[in-house]
Amino acid sequence: MEKRQFGKTGYEFPILSFGAQRIVDEHNCTEDEAIQIVNRAIDEGITYFDTAPTYSKGQSEERLGKALGDRRDQVWIATKTGERTRDGSWRKLEESLKRLKTDHVEEWRLHAVGTMDELDRIFAEDGALKALIEAKEQGIIKYLSISGHTNPQVQLEAINRFPFDSALVALSAADHFIYSFAHEFLPKANEKGVAVVGMKLLGLGRLADWYEQSIRYTFSLPVSTSIIGISSMEELEKNLAVARNFKPMSDVEMLTFLKEIMHMCTPEILRWKAKDWNNKEEWAVR
């Protein structure tokens, strides 16, 4: 698989990375299957794994920790805090480390920051950012990150206020048409050397009829890597095949594809763009 630089960190990753939100009972994936899928992914060169404490009440982190075992030093773990305070975030990190069976994570990110008010709370004197900075100073985490699905202006403001190492943002082809991170956020992030991780590539499965094209669209953007939620070995193999054979979309291909899926830009499909989106787990990373 093609590899790309991860911002200014000096690391590089394959274009395909692992969204661990779906290796859980809720998505009909058993613990044994989860362990097999994670190890197969590592065998095939995937090294970047994204999870969060809110994914199935910690089961995603727990299974990822069990699956990695003595291969922990072969991978990069990114987990999150949905808390907006320092103390709340520290509690979440301590719980995450226990479930992941590790004493550190490579990347800790502020989860799904959707409004300027949330951002202000995070940047307050007792806000979550303080926990991120302290954890980095203590060597518990290495890199600081933020994620967002809804309004790219929030993430733009975040990277203007603070030198985040990375950002995880919604970059499906359907996102191209409204509050577009590809148009509004990606150029500035690249200019600042912020590693950008794409998510929502398949639009929660709604773009399944354009499976390969949807993945190729995001891979064709100037992102560092992209995560796709995986709940079965079949899905993993399918994604690996697209990544191994990836060729960037030409301008004509991309325009033709976008015209074809333009009708998918609706509140029912782009739920994460809605003002009342409340971060339900079933709307999480895919």
From TrEMBL:
InterPro entries: AKR2_Oxidoreductase (IPR053135), NAD(P)_OxRdtase_dom_sf (IPR036812), NADP_OxRdtase_dom (IPR023210). Residues 16-217 form the NADP-dependent oxidoreductase domain. It comes from the Bacteria. CDD domains: AKR_unchar (cd19100). It holds the Pfam family Aldo_ket_red. PANTHER family: D-THREO-ALDOSE 1-DEHYDROGENASE, NADP-DEPENDENT OXIDOREDUCTASE DOMAIN-CONTAINING PROTEIN. This is Aldo/keto reductase. It comes from Paenibacillus radicis.
